[in-house]
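stage 2 :: seqdesign
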């Protein structure tokens, strides 16, 4: 069987994209997805994304982590699939699609994609950390000396000891100014640090605002893979009009034969 694929990346968070509008991809094969995402035995990616037909919107997004399991929302993946839809000629400069957490709207300007994220109404504050769901669950914790911090070790420890079987993504943060933060993320389902996490930096921006670490509703997030911005409105009920913005681009295409 031959499966055409496209490789995309958004600030170094990389994805295999498959146009599944004709249903060519068998969806319940965890081993196959994990093998495709394997960096030594496969194409290599943090996740695999299917673009599918939607009855009313431009397309539907189905997201798998690199461990082969279906998961919750992927912000960088949402920005990349919008570029992919443009490359396929499905959309031009705006896109409306459905993902596991609901409706998303994207605006595509050259390499830059701005993605509207789900509203956030609940934030749990603890002494040392913040927990919130921005489409995916995120633990946010401030550390000093982020550059040398052992993200893989500490991230795995927090993910497993605090959040149990369901797990969570774990973001470590260092302030660089009032509205600029450096972020490194341990991703559930990849079970390692990735170069960037879109729902992760969104969680960091909201957590920094909620805890008074920033007074700005437009925050710059520096990740190992590049720079993202998050803007939002704070309402009495929580956060609305949340936009994640940054570069997302095509890398290469090929055919997976199995
Ligand atoms: N890289 C993603 C997050 C993907 C989902 C996450 N690994 C999970 O299972 O919660 C992003 O850019 O948001």
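stage 2 :: out
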């Amino acid at each position: 069987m031959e499966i055409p694929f496209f490789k995309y990346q958004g600030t170094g968070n990389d994805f295999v994209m498959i146009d599944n509008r004709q249903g060519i991809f068998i969806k319940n094969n965890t081993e196959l997805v994990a093998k495709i995402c394997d960096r030594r035995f496969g194409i290599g990616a943090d996740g695999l994304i299917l673009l599918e037909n939607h009855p009313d919107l431009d397309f539907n997004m189905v997201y798998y982590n690199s461990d082969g399991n279906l998961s919750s929302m992927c912000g960088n993946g949402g920005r990349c699939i919008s570029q992919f839809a443009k490359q396929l000629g499905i959309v031009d400069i705006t896109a409306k699609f459905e993902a596991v957490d609901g409706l998303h709207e994207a605006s595509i300007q050259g390499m830059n994609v701005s993605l509207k994220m789900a509203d956030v109404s609940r934030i749990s504050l603890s002494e040392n950390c913040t927990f919130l769901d921005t489409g995916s669950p995120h633990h946010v914790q401030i550390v000093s000396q982020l550059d040398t911090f052992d993200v893989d070790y500490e991230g795995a420890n927090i993910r497993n000891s605090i959040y149990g079987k369901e797990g969570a993504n774990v973001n470590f943060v260092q302030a660089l100014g009032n509205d600029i933060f450096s972020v490194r993320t341990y991703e559930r389902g990849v079970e390692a640090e990735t170069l960037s996490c879109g729902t992760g930096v969104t969680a960091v921006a909201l957590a920094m605002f909620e805890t008074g670490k920033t007074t700005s509703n437009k925050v710059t997030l520096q990740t190992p893979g590049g720079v993202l911005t998050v803007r939002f409105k704070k309402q009495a009920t929580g956060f609305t009009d949340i936009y994640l913005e940054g570069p997302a681009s095509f890398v290469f295409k090929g055919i997976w034969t199995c």
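stage 3 :: structure notes
- Residues 13, 65, 71-72, 74-77, 136, 169, 187-190, 197-200 surround LBFN2T5F (CB under 6 Å).
- The two ends are 5 Å apart (CA to CA).
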